[in-house]
Structures are given as C-alpha cells and as structure tokens.
Amino acid sequence: MKHIIIISLTLSLLSCQTNRSTFDEETSDVINTFYSDALELRESYELLRVLSKEIGPRPSGSDGAKRAVLWTKEIMEGYGFDTVYLQDVMVPHWERGEVEEAYFFNNGEKVNLSILGAGGTVSTPEGGVTGKVVEVSSLDEVDELGEEIIKGNIVFYNKAFNQRYINVGTSYGETGFQRRSGAVKAAEYGAIASVFRSLSSSTYDDFPHTGGMSYKEGLDSIPHGGLGVLSSEKLSQALKNNPDLNLTVKLSGKWYPDAPSHNVIGLIRGQKNPEKIITVGGHLDSWDIGEGAHDDGAGCVHSIGALRLFQKQNIKPNNTIRAVMFMNEEFGLRGGLKYAEIAVKEGEQHIAAIESDASGYVPRGFGFSGSEEQYNKIQDWLKYFDKNTISYFSKGGGGADIGPLHRQTGTPMFGLSIDGQKYFEMHHTAKDVFELVHARELELGTASMASLVYLIDKYGL
Predict the structure, then answer these.
(1) How far apart are CA 280 and CA 445, in angstroms?
(2) Fold designation for 98-252
C-alpha cells in the first residue's frame, strides 16, 4: 500500500511538472512574440507620430480634441476591432489666451521671467497685476504669515524638487500643492495673485510647466501661474537682495461653457465570456503647449497597440478586451467619471482595468490595487517577462481615469510604471513632443500592456 501511495504521489508530481512546463512554454512564446512584433513593426510609434505631429495639442473642448476623437475612432475601425463607438461626455473648456508675462525691475533694468498660466487660471486685468512678493515653501507658511503680510501682495511658492529620491514621482507628489492649491490658500488671505515654482526635476532649464489647479467657491479667484526653475531661482535671489521688489504678472486665461466631447472605445469581443471586460486605456486629451506625446499620447497608443498585438497573433480572448481613450483627464476627469457611471448603470462586469499614463519611456513594472490574494497570484507572472521590461508588481497603483471605476465597483486596477527619471523635466511643458519619444521604449510599453492583458484573460485574477 505504501509503495502504491508513493508511486501515485510521484506520478502526480511528474504530471504537475509536465503541465507546468507546457504552461510556461506556451505563455512565454505568446508574450515573447508580443515584444518581437511590437519592436519590429513599430505601429504604436507611427500612430503616436500622427497623433502628435498632425493633430497636435488636444486640450478638452478644443478643435484638436475633436480631431483626435474622430481620428482615433477611424484608426480602430480600420484595424477591424469588433466594435468601435463614442461615449458622450460634457467637458470643461478653458483657453490660455495670448498674453503670459512676468517681470520685475532690478536697478532700473527689466528682468523677464518665464511663466505659464496654470490650467484653469483666470486672467489678470489687461495691464497685469503688480505687487510685492511674499516667498513661501508651504501652505502652512501662508497660514502663519496671515492677512497682515499676504493681503495685496503676490505669493510666490518656491518649494523645489527633492533630488535625493530615486523615485522622482515622490518629489512631484510633495511639491504638487503649489500648483493645485496655491491660489486658494493665497486668496484666503487677500493675495492679488500667486506664482509657483514649476513641478520640475530639472535644475538647468527654464521651461515653465502648466497643470491643473483649483478655486474655491466664496473666495476670490486670483491669477495663478508657474515659473520656470531658473526663473524661480532668479526671483528668489532678487528677493534676498531686495525684499521690497515688485513683480508684475500678466495672464489671459478664459473659461468657456462646457463642450460636448467623447471617450473613444474599441473592443475585441470575448469568445467564452463576452460579458466580462478587461479595460486598457490612456487619456486622449493633453495640455495646449506641447504635443501631448508622452502625456498621454503614449498611453493611448499603448492601449490601441495592445489590442493590435492580439490581432497579429490571431488571439481570440476569453473575455472582452476594451481599449478606452478617456477625455479630460488633465483638469476635470470627466471621461473617467462618465465611463464608471455608465459601467455601474449598465451593470457591466469588469475583471480588471489597466492604465498607461506615465509616459512612453522604458516600462519597469505595474502598480496594483486589489486584494492580497490577487497580489500574491500575480507575482508568479513575473517569470514571463524579460527583466529589462517588467520586473515587479507593487502594491498601490492604477490611474486617474480608471480610479472611479475601481472605487465604485471594486474592479482591480493596474498602472504601468515607467522609468521616470526624465519625465518631470518635460511633463506639462512645450517639450512634450514626439521627438522626445524613443521608438523601442514606446513599443516595449505596448508589449507590456498586451502581455498583462493576456495573462489576466488567460488565468484570471
């Protein structure tokens, strides 16, 4: 009896090892082919060239955004996705205007500073606003100084990136209050305007960065703009030499009524479970000053390209795979909110949602928000990836556009993590152009997205 049990266990173990070997080989071949096809064909790179160079900037509510919606729909229809459609959404519409200027006088000489209005800022009067400058490095410091010091003056937020962090995103998180909340805090104490040091990891250029900001009902909405890093240093040094200097700021941003727009959705229908959905996406809108190549044209072509790689291998997914180009991530998140609203209303079953919104540089891993059991399961998938691509799944992650779906339905979400050392030098600037995207790096991201979709579709979470 003992011998029979031992033989039985041995056969069982051999069977498991054999199945495991076949399992590894089959999945590995598919994933390796994703990478080989992406690197050789470079379809994502060509899509990004057209989106960046021929369509260009795509702020929500703009003509560029309208052209991008129609082009994206046409591309996915041309690829023969099973269904391609537009999801209606009303979006905010703000335009920068022509005038953006900041300067002070030093011993009678005009010193110009580089500035961009924050996304959503109100304009200054035609002649600008001029006032003494109060330099601070935190919101708490504004509270401490109070109305006696702040009222009638211009608040200058000058908190620099902490260069000691390996993860540059940590510095971005620590300094983001200046742009997002700076105007509200300054207005609480009667400031006439506020400016902030651009959220940049650079120490050597003077490109100003834009980005979303907020106002608060019941408070004056004051002009708010971002200064280039070198301009911030210049102003800070000038204040040390002359604390009473006056700064003039001119901005011409203007709000318009909400505009009709769309999320663009293309899908490959599942063969076994068509009612179950894996969503993969990026945001189609961009800021108005560059081409939105890295942010987030890259995420859009990663997502479309992932479905395209399925087609190249004639893979028929078990579940429905949706590529979603979200509208209005940059200031409003209307597209992501609408997608979640419709998903809840129609009782859709989402297995997972994956977002790429961290640039087109080299992929390194995925952040994950889901259960502990799911997190432990996906660790075993790392063996399918070349270590020069995806080397980790970390806890916490996802994306702004898929966040509403995750919060409202509990759908597990993933966010593609990128080697971001260069990203915050060009993030939300005029430098975000196609020429700064490397074809092989971009295509590695597309293949990584396709690989994760394939693993989820085949093995589930």
Answers:
(1) 13
(2) Glucose Oxidase; domain 1 (3.50.30)
